[in-house]
Structures are given as structure tokens and as C-alpha cells.
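[audit] Reproducing an earlier prediction to check determinism. Same input, same settings, fresh worker. If the C-alpha cells differ from the archived copy the diff job will pick it up downstream; this log only records the rerun itself.
[audit] input (389 residues):
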Amino acid sequence: MSRSRTIRWVLLVAAIAGLGYLGWQRFHGEEHPAQADGKRAPARTAVPVKTAPVEKADFPVYLTGLGTVQGFNTVVVRSRVDGQINRIAFQEGQFVKEGDTLAEIDPRPFQAVLDQAKAKKAQDAANLANASLDLQRSTRLGEFATRQQTDTQRSTVAQLTAQVEADTAAISNAQTQLDYATVKAPISGIAGLRQVDVGNIVNAATQTGIVTIAQIEPIAVIFTAPEDQLPDIRAALATAPPKVIALSTDGKRELSTGTLSLINNQVDTSSGTIRLKAVFDNKDHALWPGQSVSTRLLVATLKNATVIPDDAVQHGADGLYAYAVNQDNKAELRKIKVTRSIDGRSVVDEGLSLGEQVITAGQFKVQPGSLVTTAIASSDPAQAKVAQE
């Protein structure tokens, strides 16, 4: 009896609890129908994005590469005579002009040789004058002078004339040697590290020079391009020297602008590249010999190309795509074909039309058909800064 009574009490309590729960659920369901509906169908919100228009513009086609700056001319200045350095007339790193004095070698030995050559010429000239007078006297004697005497005197005059001419050449040589005692800059450029000091003995046979001068106005850049681009480069060079831009190695800072001057006469078979030479005025000395730079060679310009910002181009499993915004402010996925890309812009051959708006920021929240709220992206840094503030 006691056991059956306990079971009935348990069942009664369970029934009362169940009825109470059903009543509570019914009460809350009828009291807040809007809340229940809201949980089933949440309201759609617009995704904030930035857009930019699809434009038509002339698009430059550049070949990028790496290059090394070289002095347009580089000269190791050596002594052409033997002697002791009396004076150094330049500062290391100084810009020197052609003809400037760089060093002076003790000129006394060369001056002595020059003076000796001048004295020898004066002596021979006096002998020549005397022999010429003797020849004139022999000629005036006529038949009273033998023919042999006249011919001998005429030969003596000729020998002394030749000797005077040899003396003139010796004087010229001695003057040249004396001039070499003053070492002058053969070109204009930047002087490097000095290799000799005052008091050093230099000679013409020594390979070590006094200083190296590198011409940097203009200056050259040697860089390479793939051999399969050679026809395009030659075609561009045949019309006019194509523009070459030298940039820092990270490609972020433009250093100088020049022109292509030379295509090497053979392709490097080991690397499949062709060496090119560009010339830059370099008036501001932005380029320095030995410096590594990135290069851009302009080989063509695409007229009236369809252009969008690089930020609009997305990569997917099926290739490249972009989101365009239609008239209902909804995102549409467009598969696109990109042929060129540089400086934050890409050329699109298929998938987009002039005047359409493409999403450039916020794509990670966008799905095809998503409602979007747009802000026009600006490529002007000043406008972008104002927008951020």
C-alpha cells in the first residue's frame, strides 16, 4: 500500500509540472509574437563597401627588371712619368671638371731636360747658320770653287737642318714630359678614394693609379630583360628611344627617368636574357655608380583600355573575379580577364563595362546578391586623408 501511494504522488507531481510548463510556454508565445517572428526572420542589413568606376584610359606597358648603375665613363688616373708627388690638389669625393689639376709631380728633372733640348737646338741652329753662309760663299765663287766643295757644303747644311728639326722634336717631347708632371682630370666626374699621398714616388709602369674618376652626368644603368621581349623592345627603340624609369630596389620610390640607348649584341644563353643600357641625365645625382635599382622599360601604350583598381580584383578557385554594384545596390559577381597590372591599376579585357562601379574594399563581407551601401574610393592621397579625418 505504501509503495503504490508513493508512485501515485510522483505521477501527480510530474503531471502538474508538465501542465505548468505548457501554460508558461503558451503565455509567452501569445504575449510576444513579434519577438518570435524576429527570431525566425532577422531583418537584412546593407554591407558597407567602397567602390570605384570602371574607366577608359591610356595604359603604359612596362617591362620590369633589376639593374646596376655604372659611371658613364670611369677612368683610373695614373702618372705618365716617374717622380715624387709634391702636391695633391683634390679632395676625395669632390666633383672635378675636365682639365682640373689633381696632383703635381716634382718638375725639376723634366725642366732640366727641356732646357737641355732648347740649348741643343740653339747650338745646332748656329751651326746651320754658319754652314749656310759657307754655302753662299762657295756658290758665289763660281768656277773658282770646286763642285765637290759646293756639294759637301750643301750636304752639311742639309744635315744641320735635319738636326735642328730633331732638336725641335726633342723640345716638344721634353715639354710633354714636363706637362705630364702636372696630373689633370681627363673627364668630369666624382673623384674616389686617393691612392697616393704627398711624398710618394710614382711611376708610369705602376698599375695602381692616383685616383679613380667616375662620370655621373650622365650616368648609365645596365639591366636585363627576357629574350622573348626582344622584338617588342627593338620595335620601341626603332620608333624613338623608349623611356626607362629607375626606382629603389623595393620599387616604391622613383629615382630618375632616362632613355634606352643600347641593346647588347647577343643574348645570354645561360639565363635567356638580353642586357640593356639606359642613360640618365642625373643632374641631381640620385643615381650612384654601383647602386642596385629596379627598372621599368616602356615598350608600348595601350590606347583606350578598360582599367580598374587592383583592389577590385579578387582571386577565386575558378580564376579572377570582381564584384560590380547594380542599380539596386546589390553585388554581382563578374568573372574577369586581366592582361596587365602596374601601379595599382589593372587592364580588364572581359567581364566589365565602362561606367560600372566595382567594389574595392569590404569584399570579405559580400556575397552575390548582397545589399551594399557604397562610398566612392578616391585615388587622390589628399582626399583620402580628409576622408579618414
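[audit] rerun output stored. Observation attached for the diff report: The chain has a mean pLDDT of 84.
[audit] end
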